[in-house]
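Question:
Write out your own:
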Amino acid sequence: MTYGIYNIKKAFENEIVRCNNCYHYFYDEIFGDERNDNTLQMLFDEDFKEYFMGCPVCETDDYLTDIDLTQFSEKELDEMQKDNGANFDEI
């Protein structure tokens, strides 16, 4: 399964986060029209016996950071898209 946002440019309308460990981008919240593999997942911490929202790839929230897409140029967004392994034409 491939995790992360497939169309970075579509994400302008929503708050997104990046995992600085695996470098995938995710929606901060689950939206009705998005698949669960595009959002952070509810994970269970065995040590503290509680649930938290975290990266589904790394299974932690230690590396998550908010991303403001308005600070990036068109070229930078294209590079982010390539790094995330997605194709703008997919969606």
